[in-house]
Design brief:
mainly alpha; about 120 residues; about 70% helix
Length: about 120
């Protein structure tokens, strides 16, 4: 089982679906546009969750993936954990190690005052 490959495959599926939705939007009627836009937005959120899950799996710090994040647009830890749960084995230490608390800790941004103290 190659978890990294499984995550990359899920990302590729999301990207393909997003492209398909974008093409449909180009020719959509006025009645279809709001629904397709909503689907495209949801797919973007899902793609982001998969990309964050992949970064976390690889050990890349969250701030390296998203150096800036607008207030109110922070990632949802449950979505990232749900992505990981889909590709991790159901039983064993591997799946038990990935908890919501671990995801939330990974998503924490250091405060500006914390970074200033570390730099000094």
């Amino acid at each position: 089982m190659n978890i990294a490959k499984d995550i990359r495959d899920k990302i590729a599926e999301c990207v393909a679906t997003s492209r398909s939705l974008r093409r449909q939007l180009e020719t959509a009627s006025a009645e279809q546009c709001p629904w397709l836009c909503s689907c495209k937005r949801r797919m973007g959120n899902q793609t982001r969750a998969w990309l964050l899950a992949y970064a976390m799996w690889r050990g890349v710090p969250y701030v390296a993936v998203e150096p800036r994040c607008r207030e109110g647009n922070e990632p949802i830890s449950a979505r990232v954990l749900d992505c990981l749960a889909l590709v991790l084995p159901r039983d064993g230490a591997e799946s038990e190690a990935w908890t919501r608390g671990r995801v939330e800790a990974w998503l924490l941004r250091p405060n500006a005052s914390d970074t200033a103290q570390v730099a000094a």
